[in-house]
Protein 1
Amino acid sequence: MNFIAKIFFTFLTFVLTTSINVRCQGIELSANTFYGTFEMSSMKNFHQEITDDLSEQINVPFSVTDNFPGHYGLELQLLINQGNFQYGLNINSITTGANTSYSDFSGDISMSNSLRSTTVGGSFYFAPDGQSNHKLKLYIGAVVGLSLVNHDFETKLILQSNTDITSYEFKAMNISFRPTIRLNYQIYKGIFATSFVGYCIEISDKLKLSENEDLHLLNSEGDVVKANFSGLRLGLGIGVQLK
């Protein structure tokens, strides 16, 4: 995966540096907020398994308050216009997680699995013909990138004045592919509103322990636990034409 990452970032550097020397028809910069849903079956099963084990060990009815729900993220995109084509850089980040807790007069116990995915990639779009004079423009394309996934697992036990916290950090590098349909609407001269709908498809890597990458996360049956951010993406934002 490190070899793939080096090739990918070399490609991005090549695209951005060579585009500076190309006579382009405009550069667009946009900032978007988006909503994402997630597949996460492996993580959900892992969290439920640990919840059930804790419930058996100390005989209390734990409550799962979140279970890797859909969440909002942020995205920055720099696109270079070349005829009917656009290409450039895309950076986006999104979080989700699961929490289990129990509290009574004797104290509190909680467990959390927190996930963050930060993706750096390339955007590639095509605009169908016949839209050059329209305020509303349609683009069809995809975002391809590498996603750095950070997983924080933490348990916290509070008994009267004593607090015991145990935490582990894991990380993975996933490959992300998001077919996308995008709409831009010109508000005023070089300012435009933008929206998109897409579906993210991820190839997930093992979650490796940050302190020792030879160790990775497994469930009780010895199966690899993965964080899969595949799912629907709906975005809305604003952008400017820089050139």
Protein 2
Amino acid sequence: MDTRTSLFVVAMFALLIAWTWATADAGLCSIGIAKDAITKAPTTTCFEFWFNRYQALLAAVAAFATALIALAPARGQLREMIKQSQQRRLEDLRERHSNITEFNDNMNRLVASASAVVAELQKSENFAGFVNISGVAGSAASACEIALEVIDNASAMLGKPWGDRSTMATIRSLRDNLHRFGSFAIDARRILKIISGTLHRPDDRELLEELRKFAKKADRAFRPCFDDASVLHAKLTAEQIRIESELDSIQSQMTV
């Protein structure tokens, strides 16, 4: 028996005692209207007089008390449903937070790896005297290799639904730009490997010019990817902060 039911039983017992006293000769039966009614109708008892007078009120009180008892388990079920709903929302938010964290990490790796390709190739832009053409080409080819792996991972992440129309538009743009940069990286990796394995003079102008052309192409191919990735990173970071705030709010509600 729970606390509410126990209190109800005690209240009913107290009401019974009070009613017994009230209908005794020293109680409500001594009131004038009760005496007159009993005198006019000797078959009517004091209890019958007061019961007939207030039976509607007693019925309403009994109905109200019954409703309170019936409401208690319903409120418990409602609290349990709310708790389950909050738990599901909590799990969904945690999963989305984890996905966004992973996505942002991919964006950071994408920007870092693509920047490395551009940086390696731009070493030939600063040519003054001698430059290790074979070393530059080899490093740039390795950077392309890493960038292509990151692009594959980032492209897979871009297939997931991430949010509003603006975010989705940025994702579509980034996907297209990644495809262009990936195509460049595939071609560049192949040719740069050939250049890095070629015997040549340190001041081979023709090969140096080839590297410079690749540097310009790499920058043009990478710049749109960088811009889209930066916008997307900012959007998802803001979403990440909002999710963290909602997670804290739900967890505090569940501990109350």
